Amino acid sequence: MSIQTNPTETNVAGSTQEKAPSGLRRVVAASMAGTIVEWYEFFLYATAATLVFNVLFFPKSDNPYDGIIAAFGTYAVGFIARPLGGIVFAHFGDRYGRKHLLQVAIVMVGTSTFLMGCLPTFDSIGYFAPVLLVALRFIQGIAVGGEWGGAVLLVGEHAPASQRGFWSSWPQAALPLGNLLATLVLLVLSSTLSDAAFLAWGWRIGFWLSVVIVAVGYYVRTKVQDAPIFQDTKEKIEDSDSQINYGVFEVLKKYPRGVITAMGVKFGENVLYYMVVTFSITYLSVWVGMETGSILGLILLAHLTQFIVMPIIGRLNDIVGRRPLQILGAILTIGWAFIAFPMLNTAQPLIIFLAIASGLIVQSLLYAGQPAVMAEMFPTRMRYAGVSFGYQMTAILAGSMAPIIATSLLSNYQSWIPVSIYIAIAGGISLMFSLTLRETKGIKLEDIDAEDHRKHVMTAQTPN
């Protein structure tokens, strides 16, 4: 797509910077409120898979890794469901709007998470316990799969072209904020309760608290509207005499390169993230022998660091561009693990914090700019489908399998080196695709729509 950026919009630091439209901060708050809920609940499950589910929902085993791998298997179900959620929500989101689908998503994930806190354990109902857990995890995954694309587009489509990287990085900052909240809840519970009480009933409180957070998030999302560019596109489609297509099949047909590139860029970042925030808990508790409270405290501080860093990197995306930061993040991903695991092995809290925080900062170099990068690959009529499919399909190949693969490698080889090689390979995949990225800093979404209309819509309407 050969669209030129507007030079008056690419210099974020200059005097020509566009003024953010009124109400944009409210849109950001609405997007973040729901996304915080989604990631609070998703990370709560990830942490519980390591600390609780492996003990309470699966048969006992002499190998401590067996229960963890089984729990991570149910964890992976959520990732498998995410593309389905992305496809369904994107289909209706591109047709009817981002706002309404986001309200549905937050209710779905809140309900499924609350019910997880009510489940009986393996000792009570046997194998029905993991079956019910998997079913609720699947519903949760569908909701999260539909959430991300709508949340980032709600902001990205409202934001000025010269500031899209900064504003759309705020929903990304909701990821560490939601994880921070989940970590804080689990840290308080595990610190104030005995191990027996925490395993017996204390862990359930974190899941039940989701009702309060969901109510707040849902209310905030009722106070915003879809962006003008989406509303204009919707009106044009409704007023058109010719059928203008949208949805996943259309985006795969018309923009396959954009979808594949989005998946490739996402791959290394997704693997790295779940290595840092999920597998590190397993590694530190089982391999290094640290106490749960200490691990959660360090991860909490690392999440806080990432929350501060995310919008700063988002701003840099508008200054230096999307492509350089994606390339830098991928290069650092390749080398991070070889430095980080020896730091984790020291069992020194400060050094471990630096290892975890550095991993999240590297991940932020890739993650903060992804909404802008992906939104600028697709026209409005199929943007939800494009970003959701590219993002969520990668979750199956990368995030869902990463903790399972890493735990299996550690169990089989009794060494962190194979795990580091695995992370480096994932980073190399992202580097390869980052090098092929087209720089789109400062581009207008209206220009992307105009080019799409000229190349695809007008062509389809022209008689042979």
Q: What proportion strand?
A: under 5%
CATH class: Mainly Alpha
- Amino- and carboxy-terminal Cα gap: 24 Å
| Helix run count | 21
CATH architecture: Up-down Bundle
CATH homology-level superfamily: MFS general substrate transporter like domains
Elements, N to C (H/E): HHHHHHHHHHHHHHHHHHHHH
Please identify the structural class as seen in this structure: mainly alpha
Gyration radius from CA atoms, angstroms: 22 Å
Show the helix and strand layout.
Elements: H1 7-10, H2 24-56, H3 64-96, H4 98-116, H5 122-125, H6 128-156, H7 164-167, H8 169-192, H9 195-208, H10 210-221, H11 228-239, H12 248-254, H13 256-288, H14 292-319, H15 322-344, H16 349-367, H17 370-375, H18 383-397, H19 402-413, H20 417-434, H21 445-461
Helix pairs in contact: 2-3, 2-4, 2-6, 2-8, 2-9, 2-10, 3-4, 3-6, 3-18, 3-19, 4-6, 4-10, 6-18, 8-9, 8-14, 13-14, 13-15, 13-16, 13-18, 13-19, 13-20, 14-16, 15-16, 15-20
TL;DR?
The protein has 464 residues and is mostly helical.
Features:
464 residues; mainly alpha; Growth Hormone, Chain: A; 79% helix
Describe the protein.
The protein has helices spanning 7-10, 24-56, 64-96, 98-116, 122-125, 128-156, 164-167, 169-192, 195-208, 210-221, 228-239, 248-254, 256-288, 292-319, 322-344, 349-367, 370-375, 383-397, 402-413, 417-434, 445-461. By secondary structure, it is mostly helical. It has one domain (20-461): MFS general substrate transporter like domains (Growth Hormone, Chain: A). Helices cover 79% and strands 0% of the residues.
